[in-house]
Specification:
Largest sheet: 7 strands, mixed
Distance between the termini: 53 Å
Number of helices: 22
Oligomer: single chain
Structural class: alpha/beta
Low-confidence stretches: 1-7, 231-249
Number of domains: 3
Number of strands: 9
Length: 551
């Protein structure tokens, strides 16, 4: 049989050359992203306790500015559902009941958090994202999804929740289901049905239309039928630069100033020496940076050209964009996975698609603000509920359980801790639970944060990486850095014969590393068989020897 010739993939050019060659494909992809981004930006803004325009401001800056200085090719920058919880908590805590003051204090926290992001990027701290075990990260995101679904369920039904604590908010959902505002519930539930069944449509021409856009159009149509807009424009008669009342949305419709420039608000640094201010800063910086780096890595795997992003450069660029957004009233942005996936599916070639998405958003809100005025809040709530569901879906719980009982326990501990306390405490407790599991399994204390390995070259074409003792999420960064510096095109032998415990985070990294290294023309082999796997998953945590006293 004659061998098929290997087709070499031509990687698109970057910069102005990439714009000249691919502007049509990138503009079309950017327009598709815009259709998805508009409703999500509005929904995330309102759920975060910010004015509706805040998310649009961030997406415009992320597209027009950050895309030009970032280290990624396919990611779309903008506000994300994962930050709703921390931003809303900051508004409530810093404002102490005054949402307008809380909004401006939170803008100040965003500016400071963004300066920290810039410092982290310049300090090459992106590599430390590996320190967070995947079960803890998934637990954090699942908890965020649960909080979003609980809070937005009441908005979808047209009911105001009387409680602040998340467990009480969840408990109140049955009451809201029994006592909804009928017209609003019809709008919300009809949008939910669209999101559930739109993916089942097989007609290619219809599938081009994003489901969120269908939800918005259907919601606006029903809103017109129910007459929701009559009282709405009365609120819009206030001058936004003289009276802040436009920041408080109309009861059932989006409130947006007709003049987009009047959407700009400025931060208030009066609480910069308060402990709760720095709690907000750390939360926004931690969650935003971690989620952005995780999303960028995920998008890189979807890139048809297999390009790798520079996480540190990307984090620096996002930090710069967030400083500007914080100074003019915008939400913090990240590299967002849903819009990035839409970008790739619609044929984007370069990061100019991100630029076009931001540019189209800017033109739209300037030219067609009255379109946005007629969007029901219930339609936006439905989009967030659907997003929250994806963050905490039953499929995710099953996936984590299949990775091992200890992974599932840590996952659940993180979720409960986040719901009962806050994101930072929840993540810390999840990491502590993971370390305790390793100690129970016999890992020595001096191996928890220190890894022991050596790399040697027995001949010109072979590299042997020998592990001594345990390799875990908390200590494998030096190994990760050493492997990334290895010359491509060699035969790499991973010798685990003298190893003790290798956790799932390390196994997942090694699997990704092997895949990439083989694509670059090399090969990878493993020496040493585990004596125990902690689940049936191929990348499960494993014991290699009976003890680690060699360390």
């Amino acid at each position: 049989m004659r061998k098929q010739p290997i087709t070499k993939i031509l990687v698109p050019k970057t910069g102005l050359n990439g714009l000249k060659e691919h502007w049509q494909a990138d503009m079309l992809a950017g327009f598709a992203v815009f259709l998805t981004a508009l409703p999500l930006c509005l929904a995330i803004s309102i759920a975060s306790g910010f004015p509706p325009a805040a998310g649009i401001i961030s997406a415009i800056i992320g597209g027009i500015l950050v895309s030009r200085i970032s280290g990624s090719n396919m990611t779309i920058n903008g506000p994300a559902a994962g930050l709703i919880v921390v931003v809303f908590a900051a508004v409530q805590t810093l404002g102490a009941g005054d949402n307008i003051a809380g909004y401006r204090y939170t803008l100040a926290a965003i500016v400071v958090a963004s300066v920290l992001q810039i410092f982290m990027g310049l300090s090459k701290i992106g590599r430390f994202s590996a320190f967070f075990p995947s079960s803890v990260v998934h637990g954090m995101l699942a908890a965020i999804g649960i909080i979003i679904m609980a809070k937005q369920s009441h908005v979808m039904l047209g009911v105001t929740s009387e409680t602040e604590h998340i467990f009480a908010t969840i408990a109140q959902i049955p009451l809201s289901l029994m006592q909804p505002t009928p017209e609003i519930a019809i709008i919300g539930l009809s949008g939910l049905i669209v999101l559930m069944f739109w993916p089942l449509i097989k007609t290619p021409k219809l599938k081009i239309i994003p489901a969120p856009l269908i939800v918005l159009c259907l919601g606006m149509l029903l809103g017109q039928i129910f007459g929701l807009q009559h009282d709405h424009y009365h609120l819009l008669t206030f001058s936004p630069m003289e009276d802040h009342e436009h920041l408080i949305p109309a009861r059932f419709l989006v409130a947006l100033p007709s003049d987009f420039m009047s959407s700009f608000y400025y931060p208030d640094f009066a609480k910069i020496f308060k402990l709760e201010f720095w709690g907000a800063v750390i939360s926004i910086c931690l969650v935003g940076s971690l989620e952005s780096m995780l999303s960028t890595n995920a998008v890189d795997k979807l890139d048809p050209y297999k390009r790798k992003s520079d996480l540190d450069k990307d984090l620096t660029a996002i930090g710069i964009g967030n400083v500007i957004a914080g100074f003019i009233g915008g939400l913090p942005m990240i590299a967002e996975i849903v819009r990035s996936t839409t970008n790739i599916k619609n044929g984007a070639k370069t990061n100019w698609a991100n630029f076009f998405h931001g540019l189209i958003l800017l033109f739209f809100v300037v030219l067609f603000p009255h379109f946005i005025h007629n969007i029901p809040l219930a339609s936006l709530a439905v989009l967030l509920i659907f997003t929250g569901y994806h963050l905490a879906s039953p499929k995710l719980f099953k996936h984590i359980l299949n990775r091992g009982s200890e992974q599932f326990i840590i996952f659940i501990i993180t979720i409960i801790s986040v719901l009962a306390t806050n994101l930072i405490v929840g993540v810390v407790l999840g990491i502590l639970a993971k370390l305790i599991v390793h100690i129970i399994r016999g890992v020595w204390l001096n191996n928890l944060f220190t890894i022991h390995f050596n790399i040697r070259c027995p001949n010109e074409g072979t590299i042997v990486v020998t592990l001594i003792g345990s390799a875990m999420f908390s200590n494998f960064l030096p190994l990760k850095q050493a492997l990334e510096k290895l010359e491509s095109g060699k035969i790499i032998v991973f010798n685990f014969s003298d190893g003790y415990l290798i956790d799932q985070t390390v196994m997942e990294f090694l699997e990704d590393f092997k895949h990439t290294y083989i694509q670059q023309g090399g090969s990878c082999h493993q020496v040493g068989n585990p004596i125990k796997l902690f689940s049936d998953n191929a990348l499960a945590a494993r014991l290699m020897t009976l003890d680690d006293r060699k360390i």
